[in-house]
Amino acid sequence: MIKRIHSGGEYEKKVGYCRAVVANGFVFVAGTCAQGDEIPSDIVGQCKSSLDAIGKALAEAGAGFKDVVRVNYYLPDMSEFKLCWPLLQGAFGENPPAATVVECNLITPEDRIEIEVTAVLPE
C-alpha cells in the first residue's frame, strides 16, 4: 500500500509531487523549503520552517525525527549551514541520520535551505 501526504504547498500542484510518500515501511519526505504565508528571509528561520513542515509530514505518516535514517541538505551558500546546526541537533539529537550536504541553486533565489529526509516507520 502506498500513502501520499499532501501539504497544500503551492509547488505541489505546479510541479506535480506531494510532501511525502509512505511505501514499504519507509517515509520519503520531498525536499522541503520554508513554508507558509510569511517566509523568513534568514536561513535559521527558513530551516526551522522546513523542519516544522517535515515534522508534520512525518507525524501524519506515523513517524518522527527519531525515525529518520537519511537526510539531504541543499543550500545555495554553504557558509550559512553552520547557523542551522543547533536546530538540526535539536531535531535529530541522539538519533542522527546519515547525511549529505550539497551547495546548489534552489527553486527560488529567496530560498536559503531545502531539506529532504527518509524515515523508517516504527514497528
Can you describe this structure?
- The chain is an alpha+beta fold and about 120 residues long.
- The chain has one domain (about 1-120): RutC-like (60s Ribosomal Protein L30, Chain: A), CATH 3.30.1330.
- About 30% of the residues lie in helices and about 30% in strands.
- It contains three helices and six strands; from the N terminus they run E-H-E-E-H-E-H-E-E.
- It has helices at about 10-15, 45-60, 85-90, and strands at about 1-5, 20-25, 25-30, 70-75, 100-105, 115-120.
- The chain has a six-stranded mixed beta sheet, covered by helices on one side.
- The protein is globular.
- It starts with a strand and ends with a strand.
- The model has no long low-confidence stretch (mean pLDDT about 95).
Query: Strand pairing plus helix content: what structural class?
Result: alpha+beta
Counted beta strands: 6
Instruction: Give the mean pLDDT.
Output: 95
What is the highest CATH level, the class?
Alpha Beta
Question: For the report, how would you describe the main beta sheet?
Answer: 6 strands, mixed
CATH topology-level fold name: 60s Ribosomal Protein L30, Chain: A
Helical region count? 3
Strand line-up across the major sheet:
1-2-3-6-4-5
Order of helices and strands: EHEEHEHEE
Pfam families: Ribonuc_L-PSP
InterPro entries: RutC-like_sf (IPR035959), YjgF/YER057c/UK114 (IPR006175)
Protein name: RidA family protein
